[in-house]
Design brief:
The complex is a heterodimer of chains A (120) and B (404).
Chain A: H1 5-9, E1 13-15, E2 21-24, E3 27-32, E4 38-45, H2 47-52, H3 56-69, E5 77-80, E6 84-87, E7 90-93, H4 104-112
Parallel strand pairs in A: 1-7
Antiparallel strand pairs in A: 1-2, 3-4, 4-5, 6-7
Chain B: H1 2-18, H2 21-34, H3 39-63, H4 67-110, H5 114-131, H6 134-145, H7 150-157, H8 162-168, H9 178-192, H10 195-207, H11 215-244, H12 254-257, H13 262-299, H14 314-332, H15 337-363, H16 366-369, H17 376-403
Helix pairs in contact in B: 1-6, 1-11, 2-9, 2-11, 2-15, 3-9, 3-10, 3-11, 3-17, 4-5, 4-10, 4-13, 4-14, 4-15, 5-13, 5-14, 6-13, 7-11, 9-15, 9-17, 10-13, 13-14, 15-17
Classes of the chains: A alpha+beta (120), B mainly alpha (404).
Chain lengths: 120, 404
């Protein structure tokens, strides 16, 4: 099967094995393997990655905003491409969203803001 | 039998949900200032909306993706960011208009000035989103919204000259105040072709799990529902024309519009107007706050669902909360609700291409809609009306700002 990196991978919805959303493929990481051939190794999720994809004048602002709004350290979160279970309308990854660092911001907002509001 | 019930319910929902402060205020202004002459703008806006709502349902049914998610999938993040930023700002602005309308309705009934009602109205909407489910919000708000049918009753009681009304359905050049005429025309188009409705509708279709077999039902409900809804707007325009023009009243404030039902229905007419305005605006507020949350959550791949508990969709719930707070702040600083309504509807007209052009591309992409792609008629009609709204907006907004 041919996979077009931009058409089929970049910006697609990532889900865990229970079909729980993890985020979207904000960036793609390639690295050189032992045989010196470049390989697609990771997907990245995070504001810093998103900032780098904008025209230069906007990069600083978006990165700063992402840094300020992000409750954890603002390094992009990386998912190993080798854990892909299924590629389709969404990209299914063999991890558990509830425990994954990809959802750290979601959990932080839940525990520190939403959970304190009655009826949540 | 089940399908028939589904269709009926869908149509009732669209009628009840159609009228909101934007279409009400713009139609009333148009009638008071230009008689039946601007009926064509409502007709064009409604036709365009029928096509667009049908498309957003079809996209969701066939591709199983909501509009916002499909946009990021197809066009990538940098372009999607433009859509998110413009549509979110617009959402807050339009939400402020609706909250202004709700607050004014409460002011009409209680006499307590409208900025005081804004936090209360926003809180009530938030509470319903926080505790309610999608179907309660969609069906409840729409069933109550049927009170807006009072405008059709009033229009019929006035025995309008139907031949003249029909003549107004054809576009014509203004006989006086050309700038104001085109500004109102684009406000009407912006009020009818509300982009938030498309994000809302497609998210609902995905949440309800539509598939290919829902395409025909979707076509019928979109067409009939939006047509009946457009009829409501036309009724408002006709009533405004027959009540205000002979009395030489120019509408500058909302409380003038509030008297439009009194000549036919007396004192109850005043309260029916307040009820119709309040309920219509409240329903629209719920839809707009949710649309902004759908747009952002789907675009960034967060978990979203109106039926889930807020703690399970923390970021999604936080976004609709923030949208309501933003809208409330605008109303609380006391900006004139009628001015903000007309302006935000005209700005919608100017920004339509940002949402509609990529949407049309999606509807012609076989990767997304397969054999259910658009025909040339739907592409052509939507392109022409959106282009018209855009040109009118770009020309008339600066002139209206300078002149007004």
């Amino acid at each position: 099967m041919d996979i077009a990196v931009v058409r089929d991978l970049l910006d697609k919805q990532l889900v865990d094995r229970e079909n729980e959303p993890l985020g979207r493929v904000d960036g793609i990481v390639m690295s050189y393997g032992a045989d010196d051939a470049p390989r697609l190794t990771h997907f990245e999720i995070g504001a810093q990655t998103l900032a780098r994809r904008l025209p230069r004048p906007f990069q600083g602002t978006v990165a700063w905003l992402g840094h300020r709004l992000s409750p954890r350290d603002s390094q992009p979160y990386r998912l190993e491409v080798s854990r892909i279970i299924h590629l389709g309308r969404t990209i299914e990854i063999d991890i558990d969203a509830a425990r994954s660092a990809a959802r750290a911001t979601e959990r932080w907002i839940r525990d520190h803001i939403v959970a304190h509001i009655p009826g949540s | 039998m089940k399908k028939l019930l589904e269709i009926t319910l869908g149509i009732v929902t669209s009628i009840g949900g159609f009228l909101e402060v934007g279409s009400l205020a713009t139609a009333a202004q148009a009638g008071a200032a230009f008689g039946f002459q601007l009926i064509w703008a409502i007709v064009l806006g409604t036709i365009c909306l029928i096509f667009l709502v049908e498309m957003s349902g079809r996209l969701a049914a066939v591709s199983k993706r909501p509009l916002a998610g499909a946009m990021r999938d197809r066009f990538g993040y940098p372009f999607f960011l433009i859509v998110v930023v413009t549509m979110s700002i617009l959402g807050v602005l339009v939400l402020a208009s609706e909250l202004g309308g709700l607050s004014l309705a409460l002011q009409l009934v209680t006499g307590i000035s409208f900025p005081w009602w804004a936090p209360l109205g926003a809180f009530a909407a938030w509470l319903l989103l926080w505790k309610g489910t999608f179907s309660i919000i969609e069906k409840g708000a729409s069933l109550l919204g049927l009170v807006t049918l009072v405008f059709v009753v009033a229009a019929l009681k006035l025995h309008p000259d139907w031949a003249r009304a029909a003549a107004g359905a054809l576009p014509s050049m203004p006989r006086h105040e050309p700038l104001h005429y085109w500004f109102i025309a684009v406000s009407i188009l912006g009020a009818s072709i509300a982009p938030y409705l498309l994000f809302f509708y497609s998210a609902g279709a995905v949440e309800d799990g539509w598939n290919d077999s829902d395409v025909p039902v979707n076509r019928i409900t979109a067409t009939l529902g939006m047509s009946f809804g457009g009829t409501l707007s036309i009724a408002v325009l006709i009533v405004a024309a027959l009540v205000f023009v002979p009395r030489g009243i120019r509408i500058e404030r909302f409380d003038q519009i509030a008297l439009m039902l009194t000549p036919m229905l007396g004192r109850p007419g005043f309260f029916l107007f307040a009820a119709a305005l309040g309920i219509a605006c409240f329903g629209a507020m719920l839809e707009i706050a949710l649309s902004v949350a759908y747009l952002i959550a789907q675009g960034f791949g967060w978990k979203w669902s109106e039926d889930a508990r807020p703690r399970d969709v923390a970021r999604f719930s936080l976004v609709y909360t923030a949208t309501l707070v933003g809208g409330a702040l605008i109303v609380m600083i006391g900006v004139d609700p009628l001015a903000i309504t007309l302006m935000s509807m005209a700005i919608t007209g100017a920004l339509l291409p940002i949402a509609i052009v990529p949407f049309l591309i999606l509807m012609n992409d076989r990767h997304f809609v397969g054999q259910y792609g658009n025909g040339w008629i739907s592409n052509g009609v939507v392109c022409a009306i959106v282009a018209l709204a855009f040109v009118l907006a770009v020309v008339s907004i600066p002139l209206e700002l300078m002149g007004g």
